[in-house]
Amino acid sequence: MTTDEPGGRRLVFMTEQKLSPETLAVSAGRPAHEHDAPVNTPIMMTSTFRGAGTVDTINDKVYARFDNPSWNGLEEVIADLEGASLPGLLFASGMAAVAAVEDLVPVGSAILIPKHAYMASISIAKKLERRGITEVIRIDVDDTQGAIEAIEAAAAARGVTAQNIDYAAPQVLLWLESPTNPMLEVADLPALIEAAQRLGVVTAVDNTFATPLLQRPLQLGADIVVHSATKFIAGHSDVVLGLAVTNRPEIRAVMLEHRSLNGAIPGPFEAFLGLRGVRTLALRMKKSVQNAQVLAERLSQHPAVEEVRYPGLPTDRYHERAKAQMDGFGAILCVVLKADVAQTEEVMNRLHLWTPATSLGGVESLIERRRRHGSEPVSIPESLLRLSVGIENADDLYADLDQALTLLTD
Question: What is the required cofactor set for this protein (predicted)?
């Protein structure tokens, strides 16, 4: 059947049989099944739309800052994959999506955010704090009980309860990443989200590392899920995009207004690339996760490696938790080398297949020493390398790492 949603958009058809994520990634967000309809969503290059008379703010497109049919396919796909009841919202970047979420909070609010998280997400929260809008409270997702106590304290200080929660302007926002960037800590999402619900706290989860194929926070009770679609969703390191999804109409309305008024909109061609990328998400993730598991196992035995952080390893402290709440362990792993900064940088310089670069989630394997960014906390080791594992041959990827690491063992 079909469903009409706000904005006059049409959600993808649903059959009586529930479709698998692999099928949804390919079939959702297509044009209507009609004679001579295009198979793919067309790129609509226009800055405005024909119209006269009184504007219908629900159904009229009016201007390309408000809506563009080029966006709708990817918005529908991500909503279906995340199990959202409302269409997603596509943004110009992952940070534009993050900003739309964090901007929900009013004066006197609190944002709780992990001590290890994407630093730009933390920076937006701190900017709001400097402006006197919110208080930023850092939590340790490695300490579930401690994090819950911080949530309880923030809610109590602001008189927030499950009965008086304002989803459109939350007094307390819990921001979570799992696995965290770059330390790959796996948060106990069910426990933290349940505590937030009980206390009247809105929860947003950055699901970029896991993707909706491996983890669906909305189904655990989260209010908002955010993706840097630049990464695994688009998957080819050639476009910058962001996505946000929610089941709550009042939250979606405020984020949509934020996108429209701030002009945080994607271009139609970028939207096309993102939608084309998601069509192969299941295949790419399967191969990358397999490669990451192989590399983690081999690197954990390498004499030049002090530590491997990857929840797919049975020895990893988050292995059982990840196995319980995820459908796979992801394509990101971190290694801490037995090296100083200069030696670590020289290892990077010796690589041939691996590309030293920031970002992640592309078909090619990328590697980065995260402390090269001055904004990274000192709790991240200087010799920690974050590996975004691509779809190349795992033996070739390991051989390249091994030859570079001989610097530390010869």
Answer: pyridoxal 5'-phosphate
Distance CA 335, CA 337 (A): 6
Cβ atoms < 10 Å from Cβ of 406: 11
Q: Taking Cα atoms as reference points, which of 340, 343, 338, 372 lies closest to residue 356?
A: 372
Catalytic residue among 9, 10, 65, 248: 65
Q: Is the pLDDT confidence value at 313 over 80?
A: yes
Tokens of 118: 């994407």
User: What's the whole-model pTM score?
Assistant: 0.94
The model's pLDDT over 341-381, given as tens digits with 9 standing for 90+, comes to: 999 999 999 999 999 999 999 999 999 999 999 889 899 99
Set 80, 118, 216, 398: catalytic member: 118
Tell me the domains of the chain and their CATH numbers. Answer: 12-278 (3.40.640.10), 282-409 (3.90.1150.10)
Catalytic residue status for 65: yes
Q: Active site residue: 231, 252, 284, 321, which one?
A: 231
- What single DSSP character describes residue 314? T
Q: In the numeric block, which tokens belong to residue 68?
A: 């563009």
Task: Decide if 126 is catalytic.
Answer: no
18 is catalytic: no
How many residues can be counted in the chain?
410
Is it the case that residue 244 has pLDDT exceeding 50?
yes
Is 231 noted as a catalytic residue in this protein? yes
β-strand pairing of 89-91 with 242-246: antiparallel
Q: SS3 for 273-313, per residue?
A: HHHHHHCCHHHHHHHHHHHHHHHHHHHCCCCCEEEEECCCC
User: Which of 67, 142, 188, 206 is flagged as catalytic?
Assistant: 206
